């Protein structure tokens, strides 16, 4: 059940609207855990929901990489908050959490 909650959290984390253009992929999307290219999906994160940024969250669960790239307001949820969600999940490790403001900055 824990992996389902973790994947659900990562998917919901990607649902926010933002202002820069960011790479977009959800856990389980082929290549999401790899560096993105000009052919990778993007999302134009326009809106007025606050201080929006591109984000990348990477978690390893039982050796399986789970990555989400999208837009989020880092004042609503921080990397510390995400770490607090992931840490109690046995066999899960937050390997990367990044917020950035430039277009397509969440590609690596």
TrEMBL record:
Coiled coil (residue ranges): none
One GO-annotated biological process of the protein: regulation of synaptic transmission, cholinergic
Domain of life: Eukaryota
Lineage, broadest ranks: Eukaryota, Metazoa, Ecdysozoa, Arthropoda, Hexapoda
Signal peptide feature range: 1-18
Protein's name in the database: Uncharacterized protein
InterPro entries (alphabetical): QVR-like, Snake_toxin-like_sf
Alphabetical keyword list: Glycoprotein, Signal
Organism in which the protein naturally occurs: Callosobruchus maculatus (Southern cowpea weevil)
């Amino acid at each position: 059940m824990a992996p389902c909650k973790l994947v659900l959290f990562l998917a919901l984390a990607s649902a926010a609207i933002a202002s820069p253009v960011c790479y977009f992929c959800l856990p389980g999307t082929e290549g999401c855990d790899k560096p993105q290219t000009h052919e990778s999906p993007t999302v134009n994160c326009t809106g007025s929901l606050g201080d929006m940024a591109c984000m990348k969250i990477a978690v390893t669960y039982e050796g399986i990489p789970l990555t989400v790239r999208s837009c989020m307001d880092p004042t609503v949820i921080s990397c510390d908050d995400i770490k607090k969600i992931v840490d109690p999940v046995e066999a899960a490790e937050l390997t990367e959490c990044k917020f950035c403001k430039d277009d397509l900055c969440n590609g690596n």
